Amino acid sequence: MRPLKRRSLLHSFRDALRGVWLCLCSERNMRIHAAACGYVLFFALKMKLPPGELACLLLAIGLVTGAEAMNTALEKLCDHVCGERNPEIGRVKDLAAGAVLLCAIFAALTGGVLFLRPELWAAVMDIVGTSWKLGAFGCSAAVSLVLIFGVPVKR
Questions:
Q1: DSSP for 76-135?
Q2: What is the mean pLDDT of the chain?
Q3: Angle at 147 between CA 127 and CA 59, to 5 degrees
Q4: Which of 51, 79, 133, 139 is the most exposed place for a label (fewest CB within 10 A)?
Q5: Is the confidence at residue 2, as pLDDT, over 70?
Q6: CA–CA dist 110, 93 (Å, integer)
Q7: CA 9: distance to chain centroid?
Q8: What's the pTM?
Q9: CB–CB of 79/86 below 8 Å?
């Protein structure tokens, strides 16, 4: 057996980005997380959150999306190893999904702590009070819903 050839850093990043893309294409929940991240970052920038608070949001986003990607990888591995229903594999998948849920709950709580202030309501009223902003926001919400629920899942 010949030794494995070292891969370049560029190839590693390319493979990692392909993994993120595969996760987005195959997992509706990842698309939900991605859309939520977009809106969270939009409002964080609109509210001009301080750098420390923005860093907390970025960490929460990374935690949730990273957990979802790990859950997806584990589920795909389990499905590959055991093609039929197996109660033990089911428990492993439930545990991984539970980890994602815990990350999402605490990320939402973090968002609540950071966003529930008068600046959020001012940002919302700015959007609602300007017809073109409301239209653009409505269009972005419609596009998000189509991308989340209308795009067929690739397995």
A1: HHHHHH--S--HHHHHHHHHHHHHHHHHHHHHHHHHHHHH-SHHHHHHHHHHHTSHHHHH
A2: 93
A3: 70
A4: 51
A5: no
A6: 26
A7: 25
A8: 0.85
A9: no
